[in-house]
Amino acid sequence: MRVLFCQLLPIDSYLALHYSSDMDADFLANWTTQMRKGLLELCVLATLKGDRMYGYDIAKRLSGVNGLVMGEGTIYPILSRFKKEGLVDTTLVESPEGPARKYYQLTARGRLLLTKMMKAWAEVRDGIETVTVGE
What we know:
The protein has helices at about 10-15, 20-45, 55-65, 70-85, 110-130; strands at about 55, 90-95, 100-105. α3 crosses α4. The chain has a single domain, classed as Winged helix-like DNA-binding domain superfamily/Winged helix DNA-binding domain (Arc Repressor Mutant, subunit A). It has a 3-stranded antiparallel sheet with strand order 1-3-2. By secondary structure, it is an alpha+beta fold. This is Transcriptional regulator, PadR family. InterPro entries: Metal_resp_DNA-bind_regulator, Tscrpt_reg_PadR_N, WH-like_DNA-bd_sf, WH_DNA-bd_sf.
């Protein structure tokens, strides 16, 4: 049997053992992911505030938004949930380029929710700016 001896360290040394710069990177990555998830729904609704669009076009437009980072596989579950919640309607339109395309457009309920979300976002953004100005 092998016995290992360890040197006892002051308590602050033990606390420091659990912290590393990798933890900062992990925390930041997780925080950024959560922030993006919350804002993506707002961005999908805002993208649909004009004309109807099909999923690929929505994904393409949002993929160009700096910092949003998402793909088609992220958009379709959101659109499906929005459809179930009555926020969007869909229309199938034949396409000469291949299969029919499903177009999405906001319902009256979706437009109302988008207006409320935009107001809430503006309040949060303004509040954060009052805290972070000068940082």
